[in-house]
Amino acid sequence: MPALSASAPGKTILFGEHAVVYGYPAIAVPLADISLTVIVQALPNQNGIHILNQGLHEDFSINSFDSENRYSLAIEIIQKHLGIRHMPAMQLTITSKIPLASGLGSSAAFAVALTKAVTSFLGFKVTLEMLNKIAFEIEQNQHGTPSGIDNTVVSYQKPVFFRKNLPPEFIKVGSSLTLVLANSGIRSLTKESVSQVRELYDHDPEKIGHIFDQIGSITEKARKLFESGDHKIIGELMIENHHLLKKLDVSLDKLDHLVGIAVKSGAYGAKLCGGGKGGNVVALVPPDQKDEVAKALVGAGAESCLLSTVETTEGIL
Ligand code: PMV
């Protein structure tokens, strides 16, 4: 059997993280230039599943179900959805350009690419809806209570206006978006920042609920602007969204500093993205300023910068 490979993009949330967990809308876009790939190869006359992930120094075999192992858990979920009991012996080779634990969706890309690769290796055709469902379950296993935005944008690979428990709406992007992603170098677990916001909310639902309301209305406003391509106002709204995330205490001085530097060096706007407390800052920039903004961000202490372009879309499936 020939080797088979599948890839999935990273993602960034441009509006609405955290509030989305409470039912408010959020907007996320795929990062086609920053992806994760899974290659599946048959292992004739062998047993088990061999994992090779050089980036994470992983080189081991799974011979029976292991609830502590993310690969084993994910494969179990895929098997359950396909209704198959026994997996043929195979090797899974994972390579990724998506930094870990930094808000760019590496775990969703892992779930999606793995599901695509393994299901087609086994000869199954899965719809995007099914792919998204399986990836969500894999994400739930890893993160507890994700809103579902990450697996949705990564499965469909389209800019999405997302509300928890509702079918995704795909937004029209009238003019392509040039993004600079600046990695603060501080890793942080989304699960922890989500539970920290939960504590704040439980302590003062009125105050925190008001912040979510404001984030929600910024997200609604931004949605229309993607269609008209008004990047200047989208940028201003991103800065407002960042300030509201700061009020939720998920920012850090370093993230605030990087947002300020991005804007000073020519970005339309910038904000932290994802769970926060570290991870990445996303800046929307004029295409001819991307290198200058990236250079300024690295000069100001970003560990590295990635560039990605979101192409125009029609906003339909
Ligand atoms: O940190 P990320 O990239 O996994 O994004 C998390 C987004 C949150 O809204 C904070 C949580 C969620 O599940 O939507």
In short:
With 317 residues, the chain is of the alpha+beta class. The protein contains nine helices and eleven strands. Strands 1, 2, 3, 4, 5, 6 and 7 form a seven-stranded mixed sheet that branches. The protein has a four-stranded antiparallel sheet with strand order 9-10-8-11.
Task: Please specify the SSE layout and strand pairing.
Layout: E1 4-15, E2 26-42, E3 49-53, E4 58-62, H1 70-82, E5 90-96, H2 106-121, H3 128-143, H4 149-156, E6 160-162, E7 169-170, E8 177-183, H5 190-203, H6 205-228, H7 231-247, H8 253-264, E9 269-272, E10 280-285, H9 290-299, E11 304-310
Parallel strand pairs: 3-5
Antiparallel strand pairs: 1-2, 2-5, 2-6, 3-4, 6-7, 8-10, 8-11, 9-10
The protein binds (3R)-3-hydroxy-3-methyl-5-(phosphonooxy)pentanoic acid.
